[in-house]
Design brief:
Blueprint lengths: L4 H7 L1 H4 L17 E2 L12 H22 L16 H8 L8 E6 L11 H7 L4 E7 L17 E2 L6 E4 L17 E5 L10 H15 L2 E5 L36 H10 L7 E4 L27 H10 L19 E3 L6 H10 L5 E9 L10 E9 L7 H15 L11 H6 L3 H8 L2 H19 L8
Parallel strand pairs: 1-8, 2-3, 2-6, 3-5, 6-7, 7-8
Antiparallel strand pairs: 4-5, 9-11, 10-11
Length: 463
């Protein structure tokens, strides 16, 4: 008897991901256009191989054997976790899915295995796999271009393969780009924030693949800021853009594969997505629990704290206040040349007793090319004391309100609808200007809680 991986892990969490994985026909419990299939068998969910080990070694010895495979699953030892990314699971267990086919790979510098080998090299050298094209998202195939910079197509020096830009003249793979491709594989590390564009490259490519009759595969990666905490509001259709293409919260608490499953099953994208899950991952993991090496996903996301603060602090990108770009700690510093009362603002923010953060004032030099470039300006530093308690949308909303209330003449929103596109509606601008931020934040909490209930059916991993 076979069961879904989710049902299995609920019954036998310590054992579930110690087993090998293969591809099977999709489960009836899965949405009709997505597939994921770790092998699970009868009895206690053990394959015959592991049943044999149980019998030969005895229950006690086998228990130690299995515990050794997944000591990371013990509640008191998450720091010992070793997550296996989807790219490794694909090559190790499910290579038949792409063997003999012409493969296009959507990736960048974050597409790596646990030992730091790039997904490009892994698939280029995989026996029986024909890697024929590479596709680059925002920031480029090497991840070095600044946000918003157009990426040119080119040729990869190491493999000689063409690199097609999906952040230049087009954000959607064209028929010409897909002419020499049978299957598109997506492997990029995301950060779990709606305005981060990598997952929208994924969804547009998935739709293009279906239209062209190509298979689309997502090899999964962790959500670095946990898969069980959502925050912020949803996004109105009129404000959807490439910094928020579909209706999910600001911090959406899903991995890329889970997001693809959810958007496909709810009809938000027209795609046929196949998923290669990770092993060893839990929704409650921070990046630091995964055992995987950190790689900056983009030039200004340099550590886990900046990643956690990014969803709410990114609001300042649509204002004339610096969000810390051009400093050593972007998204952890907020400032402006006219913010002379930064110490008072820091004290006022501390008085709000927001969870998990401490505010202080400082000064910092800003690199040329950024807001206040070439100047040393007063800034507010945000230090994280307890990641589990941090809600960046609250921090961003209250900081905007505090600064606007003290500097209504100096503070400006950028022209256009930038803040609406980042926040998801026109409500944040109005709440800041009219002092009703508490009302809006309560609404956002309700929306994100409702999303968590609806999206639970599309999750792949144990809590």
């Amino acid at each position: 008897m076979l069961m879904s991986s989710r049902a299995f892990t609920r019954r036998h969490e310590p054992l579930a991901l110690c087993l090998p994985s293969l591809w099977l026909p999709r489960s009836r419990k899965n949405p009709p256009t997505t597939r994921y299939f770790p092998v699970l068998q009868s009895g206690m969910g053990l394959t015959p191989r592991y049943s044999f080990v149980m019998k030969r070694l005895g229950l006690i010895a086998a228990t130690f054997f299995l515990a050794g495979c997944h000591s990371s699953y013990a509640a008191d030892a998450p720091e010992a976790a070793r997550v296996t990314p989807g790219i490794t699971v694909l090559v190790r267990d499910s290579l038949s899915l792409i063997r003999g086919k012409r493969v296009g790979l959507i990736t960048n510098h974050t597409g790596r295995d646990a030992d730091g080998r790039s997904s490009i090299d892994i698939l280029f050298r995989a026996r029986g796999v024909r890697l024929t094209a590479l596709f680059a998202p925002e920031h480029g195939i090497r991840g070095s271009a600044e946000g918003g910079a157009r990426i040119a197509s080119g040729v990869d020096r190491e493999t000689g393969l063409p690199i097609y830009s999906l952040y230049g003249a087009t954000k959607v793979p064209t028929a010409r780009m897909l002419a020499n491709v049978d299957v598109l594989v997506y492997d990029i590390q995301d950060i779990g924030a709606r305005m981060y564009t990598y997952v929208w490259t994924m969804t547009l490519a998935a739709e293009a693949a279906k239209k062209a009759g190509k298979m689309f595969v997502v090899v999964d990666r962790p959500n670095p800021i946990r898969g069980d905490i959502a925050e912020g509001g949803m996004i109105e259709p009129r404000y959807r853009s490439f910094t928020g293409l579909h209706d999910v919260p600001l911090r959406y608490a899903m991995t890329p594969a889970e997001l693809a499953r959810y958007l496909t099953a709810t009809g938000q994208i027209d795609a046929d997505v196949r998923v290669i899950p990770m092993t060893g991952y839990r929704e409650s993991f921070w990046w630091s629990d995964t055992g995987l090496p950190w790689v900056d996903p983009s030039p200004n996301i340099r550590d886990l704290d900046a990643t956690l603060l990014y969803p709410g602090i990114s609001f300042f990108e649509a204002t004339n206040v610096s969000e810390g770009r051009g400093t050593n700690t972007p998204f952890r510093l907020i400032g402006a040349s006219w913010l002379k009362d930064a110490p008072d603002i820091a004290r006022a923010m501390n008085a709000r007793k927001l969870g998990g953060v401490v505010f202080s004032s400082t000064t910092s030099s800003i690199a040329k090319g950024e807001k206040f470039g070439g100047q040393t300006i007063p800034m507010i530093r945000i230090a994280i004391a307890d990641r589990n308690a941090v809600r960046s949308s609250d921090i961003g909303g209250y900081l905007l309100t505090e600064i606007y209330s003290r500097h209504p003449k100096e503070f400006h929103w950028q022209r256009g609808s930038g803040i609406e596109e980042l926040s998801g509606s026109a409500e944040l601008r109005g709440a800041v200007e009219h002092g009703t931020i508490d009302v809006l934040l309560r609404k956002w909490r309700s929306e994100s809680a409702a999303f968590m209930r609806v999206s639970a059916a599309y999750k792949l991993y144990p809590r």
